[in-house]
Inverse folding.
């Protein structure tokens, strides 16, 4: 009996998320008395599969089929279902990325089994009567839920960034086994037809500095000084939902539960009140500097540092001081 | 085109989310309620698609009777038909929710024919189970793709333009994937696909007169059971106030230097 870990990769390079799933899966499999197996799907899967023994997978299933060359949620889900049936796996785990959650949801729907998404911890000894217990994330991380899972085949994802992906202390054999599922041609309907790359430099999710603006900025034009400061610091501009709702900035700039999660060295949050849905997207920042006229604003009380004042005066003054010191 | 959108009524918390004493649900005593943002965008997308291609939008929710408020809001921004699947105070697990929705959709389709498109949110704003849409699509035997931030009607199929295909764009890091999904199809939509309109006065008036159909469903519970909700432990640190107004700039830049972001 095994725990099957779904590993995602980009043309042969394993994603960090997959390493997180394997790292989370090792103690889980051990506690559940299961062998840990992995599945890698699609073009480049061979290359991605090669290193998985080091991450604790005893068997690595390499799935290939003409319909699996690019991502397709239905074809991927069906492949995992056939593998579960063929190998007698009793649990499936993936990392809770958009793709991970979607593929496991496909597996769940096809097997008609429950699926618990975005767990922070899973206890397979659970309530003592064979049910697993877990703590999962709600509200994009603002709230936790303790739950029990009663199922023949346990389907879970681990919330992204809960663990860091590290190699196993004791590597497993990582025996590669090829697997060719039987897929209906009709599943081509949800396979990626085209891929468009918009090459940009630093993105909001990877920028070392994010200068954020909220409703307090007041207009689209008034973001110019924030752009200037961000440019000076090699960073990018982010914003709150109040800003995107007003049409001042594109949604791709939005930080938060329904926007982007950021993790910069410093987040300068100006004119943002710090609603919980904004905060969950910003809380991974190593440092937060709030600029707000309201000393009691949630963003101010939660930030490590704050300046009390009008952002329209404070931001240009910071830019000027940066330039002055650089000479 | 006939489009169905499934929306969920969720509380709209402010600075923190409080949990009821029994740990079973979010304490909404002092909160307003709203439609999950992804789904608000799904309603807007459906209305825009029917404005461009003709047709009608139906909005369905499973929730307490009070969820009629979210259906009427959808009416105020241009949706046409409304279905409420009433449940008791206790929310249903995702499997059960999906089965009830799928049955109710099948019932509407039996009389009126299949919806060309069914739109879901990528995930609900509260429980965030990432699965109801996928389960419903599977029940109905239809294709589904999640994470969609762009929809166009008409797409390539077998080298030719086909009006029966929905072309959907999904955002990935640094670009997007394109899917050509034959309709009837199901798509899970994300906020950012559009900028939802605000209700007009005319829309508000129309929403008061909108007819909400009620469809009761009894289905079995699934295998995920909630024990309790609790807030994550937060590390609360004292905020260092660097100063007031533009005079604080030197202190800010000292901090930036210290963090090494000035290089
Ligand atoms: C008091 C209480 C008790 C609960 N107990 C349990 C429990 O015991 N077990 C459990 O698993 N869950 C429980 N829940 C949560 C559960 O009700 C889920 O919220 C629900 O099943 C839908 O799943 P989801 O929100 O994860 O949807 P997701 O899968 O994240 O939703 C995806 C999309 O599906 C659609 N959708 C989701 N829900 C609805 C709906 N109700 N109506 C119309 N469309 C919808 C939306 O378009 C949404 O964007 C409880 C909630 C409360 C408040
Ligand atoms: C389910 C759900 C999901 C959501 N997802 C997100 C999300 O992903 N991201 C997000 O941001 N929000 C999200 N929201 C919305 C969120 O709840 C808040 O409404 C939003 O973040 C508020 O934006 P804001 O802080 O810019 O505006 P406000 O709350 O209006 O705050 C404005 C702030 O600016 C300050 N201010 C005003 N003038 C000045 C000035 N001249 N100088 C300095 N300070 C000034 C004020 O003191 C105040 O603190 C979501 C909401 C829900 C219900």
């Amino acid at each position: 009996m095994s725990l099957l870990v779904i590993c995602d990769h980009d043309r042969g390079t394993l994603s960090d998320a997959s390493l997180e799933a394997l790292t989370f899966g090792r103690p889980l499999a051990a506690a559940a008395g299961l062998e840990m197996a992995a599945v890698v799907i699609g073009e480049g899967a061979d290359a991605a599969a090669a290193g998985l023994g080091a991450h604790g997978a005893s068997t690595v299933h390499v799935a290939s089929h003409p319909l699996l060359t690019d991502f397709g949620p239905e074809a991927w889900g069906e492949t995992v279902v056939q593998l579960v049936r063929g190998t007698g796996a009793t649990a499936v785990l993936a990392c809770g990325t958009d793709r991970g959650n979607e593929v496991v949801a496909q597996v769940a729907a096809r097997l008609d089994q429950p699926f618990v998404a975005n767990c922070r911890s899973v206890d397979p000894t659970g309530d003592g009567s064979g049910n697993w217990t877990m703590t999962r994330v709600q509200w994009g991380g603002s709230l936790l839920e303790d739950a029990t899972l009663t199922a023949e085949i346990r389907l879970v994802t681990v919330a992204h960034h809960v663990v860091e992906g590290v190699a196993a202390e004791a590597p497993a054999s990582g025996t590669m086994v090829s697997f060719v599922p039987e897929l209906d041609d009709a599943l081509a309907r949800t396979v990626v037809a085209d891929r468009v790359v918009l090459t940009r430099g630093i993105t909001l999710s990877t920028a070392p500095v994010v200068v954020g603006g909220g409703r307090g900025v007041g207009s689209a034009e008034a973001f110019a000084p924030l752009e200037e400061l961000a440019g000076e610091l090699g960073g990018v501009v982010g914003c709150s939902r109040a800003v995107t709702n007003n049409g001042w900035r594109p949604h791709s700039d939005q930080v938060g539960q329904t926007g982007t999660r950021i993790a910069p060295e410093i987040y300068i949050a100006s004119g943002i009140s710090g609603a919980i849905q904004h905060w969950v997207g910003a809380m991974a920042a190593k440092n937060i500097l709030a600029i707000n006229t309201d000393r009691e604003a949630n963003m101010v009380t939660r930030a490590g540092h704050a300046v009390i004042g009008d952002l329209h005066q404070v931001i240009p003054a910071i830019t000027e001081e940066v330039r002055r010191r650089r000479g | 085109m006939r489009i169905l959108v499934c929306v969920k009524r969720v509380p709209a918390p402010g600075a923190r989310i409080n949990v009821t004493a029994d740990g079973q649900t979010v304490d909404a005593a002092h909160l307003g309620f709203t439609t999950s943002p992804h789904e608000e965008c799904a309603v807007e997308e459906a209305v825009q698609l029917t404005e461009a291609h003709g047709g009608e939008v139906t909005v369905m929710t499973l929730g307490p009777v009070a969820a009629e408020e979210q259906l009427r809001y959808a009416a105020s921004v241009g949706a046409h038909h409304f279905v409420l699947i009433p449940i008791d105070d206790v929310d249903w697990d995702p499997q059960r929710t999906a089965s009830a929705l799928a049955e109710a959709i099948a019932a509407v389709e039996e009389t009126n024919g299949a919806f060309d498109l069914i739109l879901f949110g990528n995930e609900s704003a509260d429980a965030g189970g990432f699965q109801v849409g996928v389960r419903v699509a599977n029940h109905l035997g239809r294709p589904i793709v999640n994470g969609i931030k762009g929809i166009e009607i008409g797409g390539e199929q077998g080298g030719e333009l086909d009006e029966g295909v929905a072309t959907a764009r999904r955002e990935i890091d640094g670009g997007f994937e394109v899917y050509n999904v034959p309709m009837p199809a199901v798509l899970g939509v994300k906020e950012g696909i559009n900028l939802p309109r605000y209700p007009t006065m005319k829309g508000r008036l129309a929403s008061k007169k909108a007819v909400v159909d009620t469809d009761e469903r009894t289905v079995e519970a699934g295998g995920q059971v909630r024990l309790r909700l609790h807030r994550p432990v937060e590390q609360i640190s004292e905020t260092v106030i660097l100063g007031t107004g533009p005079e604080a700039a030197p202190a800010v830049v000292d901090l930036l230097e210290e963090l090494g972001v000035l290089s």
